[in-house]
């Protein structure tokens, strides 16, 4: 069994890097805070006897040798970047429960056949740099390295530049054989908590489509410009925000649709907005429904832009299809929960995870634990030490199951 | 007659300070560019024999002595700050046509009884610091000096701090007797151009109400958070944007209603927006209709916030009632246009102007000239040299009419 208190203490110590007054964490990808958190993880892993390597997209791998180091490793991990209003568990729990598994193996002098690794994947959140899961995507060959390094934030700074700046542009090629990959994560939804279940055995992750839309009208004076002569880009955008919501509602159950980011130009009180840039996030576990939502969105955006005389640039910038996880890995997770006597249920992930991309190149599974009120991407995000501990124990057993011949 | 080419050249030279690639001007209030423009105006006025003084809110007055300098001055002027996407004429035309009048009086050795002044009023646009017309408002006693100096931009910098920083926190008390005030300005609306009329004799300005609204919902993950559990502040704001537009349409003719500024927090693609801050600008020439619009807005905002379970902070931050200009000054403008043989018509200003506040403490009139397609607060703002010249000639005659006993 893993050490509940040690895992909790590590989470709390790491959570101070970027910790906010409200008890959350703001540690955007490739900022100085991200560097500090990476440094601390590296220090802890080296103290646990691991060798740490960094690849060209900044992914960090801490290796505990196995009996046969020519065998591919069993890898655990997640991300340590957060949302601007993030919490202390989303992502970092998967990284530090990996470290806790390694510490526990050390405590018990357990030798595995395969080497074991705990990993950090760069820029999973997709908040500072879009899309999400960029670096696990490069690892899985979904994206080119150049694509990954050229992702830019709203100020135009690229991931490549920022990796250089914080000293995490590693020398290792991105991508290498993996025996199995496991990611422990808070659920980020309400199901486990409501059903008073400790472990979510993640069988699938829903699909996503992300869009960027720019509407261009005409800046003009809010006072002397008659209502019927206006080309108000914000009025158009606000209609699309409504329709995005309507499409989500029309495709229940399970559809989600969100406008999370919106910028107005010139953003002046007495100027009719000339340009609005905004993003759309669509999700559904069924790829056909996701395609239908895509078509509905394209139709309604074109209609609104046309009716209002606005120019529109509409781009789908990301498509991540629904992911079925590997049966053997899913079984390892379910069996581990069962053996430990934890209540568990199969569950579909509402969020994207690095595991979704790694699943393309290695057998992959995920372990979910409940979080308070199902809330994440919010400074109030919270989870119970005993649930985190249960998830970590399941991770340990699932890993052992795959790492021993 | 004033000198068309000299006026145009001055406008073009001043327009380079903050000049944009698209031919517009971005010279926000109390920035380094505003300082540069103030310095240039001061230099030009001193070269024209004027004495320049600055008051405690940064208003600049360049005085050409009259026969009797104990008499209150006839003052001309406007502002030199612009919108982020501003043009080369809005405001600065009223300042530099004042200077052109003084230069013309010098050329012709004309002595007036009253002294004559050309003026710059600080932060008229209300874009960097809200509300608009702050410093002419302080001059007119509508606002306290403390209120004016404490206006803050979105970064929290105050007008007082920024005046100090650029060296335009003058020592003169704000407010002094004025014989008459005249402001020349581009129309900023389509009427004069469409009617092929050179001069707008401004009889009134419409009333305005400005609001600030903050909607607070709950940040949550865009993926695993079911549609019906959301408190999406942007969805609420976008409904209000629609209703603001509907209120404008429902109060035609003449009503204008605009959401020009909107900020989303945390503004991340995969986070349901937890907070949205936005502004509303309402206008109508009839104060009763403006009050009716105000009530409609309050009702609809409360309803939407309530239905969506959002917290709302709603504040009217500015009310500027409709302004009737002084009959004697309006007559001076009309007579000057008539005498010079310019086509003219009476017109109501859709925009607010420093003249609206000065009208409370001195007889005040305004001269409008056409601008291209009625467009302003846009880098494409444009006006014809001959129209600007006509307006300047009308200004000269109206001023002489008031400045000679
Ligand atoms: N787990 C998580 O919050 N991932 C961010 C990517 C997404 O939006 O699904
Ligand atoms: N003239 C002008 O653009 N003034 C700005 C204040 C307003 O919004 O009316």
TrEMBL record, chains A, B:
Belongs to the peptidase M20 family. Residues 206-306 form the Peptidase M20 dimerisation domain. Zn(2+) 2 binds at residues 90, 125, 377. The keyword Protein biosynthesis does not apply. Keywords: Hydrolase, Metal-binding, Zinc. This is Zn-dependent hydrolase. Zn(2+) 1 binds at residues 79, 90, 185. The keyword Hydrolase applies. One of its GO terms (molecular function) is hydrolase activity, acting on carbon-nitrogen (but not peptide) bonds, in linear amidines. The lineage of its organism: Bacteria, Pseudomonadati, Pseudomonadota, Gammaproteobacteria, Oceanospirillales. Binds 2 Zn(2+) ions per subunit. It comes from the Bacteria. Its cofactor is Zn(2+). InterPro entries: Amidase_Cbmase (IPR010158), Bact_exopeptidase_dim_dom (IPR036264), Peptidase_M20 (IPR002933), Peptidase_M20_dimer (IPR011650).
């Amino acid at each position: 069994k893993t050490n509940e208190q040690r895992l909790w203490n590590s989470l709390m110590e790491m959570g101070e890097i970027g910790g906010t007054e409200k008890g959350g964490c703001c540690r955007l990808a490739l900022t100085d805070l991200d560097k500090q958190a990476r440094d601390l993880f590296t220090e802890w892993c080296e103290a646990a006897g691991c060798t740490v390597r960094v690849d060209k997209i900044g992914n960090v791998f801490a290796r505990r040798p196995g009996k046969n180091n020519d065998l591919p490793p069993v890898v655990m991990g997640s991300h340590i970047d957060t949302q601007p209003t993030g919490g202390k568990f989303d992502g970092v729990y998967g990284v530090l429960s990996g470290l806790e598994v390694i510490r526990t193996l050390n405590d018990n002098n357990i030798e595995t056949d395969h080497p074991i690794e705990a990993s950090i994947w760069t820029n999973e959140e997709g908040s500072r740099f879009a899309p999400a899961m960029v670096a696990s995507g490069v690892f899985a060959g979904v994206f080119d390295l150049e694509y990954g390094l050229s992702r830019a934030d709203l100020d135009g700074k690229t991931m490549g530049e920022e990796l250089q700046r914080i000293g995490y542009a590693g020398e290792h090629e991105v991508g290498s054989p993996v025996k199995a990959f496991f990611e422990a994560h808070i659920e980020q939804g309400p199901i486990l908590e409501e059903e008073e279940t400790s472990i979510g055995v993640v069988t699938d992750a829903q699909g996503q489509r992300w869009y960027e839309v720019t509407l261009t009208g005409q800046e003009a004076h809010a006072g002397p410009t008659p209502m019927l002569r206006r080309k108000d880009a914000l009025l158009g955008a606000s209609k699309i925000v409504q329709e995005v919501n309507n499409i989500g509602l029309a495709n229940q159950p399970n559809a989600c649709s969100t406008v999370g980011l919106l910028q107005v130009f010139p953003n002046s009180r007495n100027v009719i907005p000339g340009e609005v840039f905004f993003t759309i996030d669509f999700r559904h576990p069924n790829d056909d429904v996701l395609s239908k939502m895509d078509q509905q969105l394209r139709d309604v955006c074109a209609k609104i832009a046309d009716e209002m005389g606005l120019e529109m640039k509409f781009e789908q910038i990301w498509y991540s299809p629904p992911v079925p996880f590997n049966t053997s890995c899913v079984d390892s997770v379910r069996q581990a929960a069962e053996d430990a006597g934890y209540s568990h249920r199969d569950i579909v992930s509402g969020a994207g995870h690095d595991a979704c991309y790694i699943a393309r190149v290695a057998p992959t599974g995920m372990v979910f634990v409940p979080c308070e009120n199902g809330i994440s991407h919010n400074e109030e995000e919270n989870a119970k030490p005993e649930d985190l501990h249960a998830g970590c124990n399941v991770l340990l057993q699932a890993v052992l199951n795959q790492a021993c011949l």
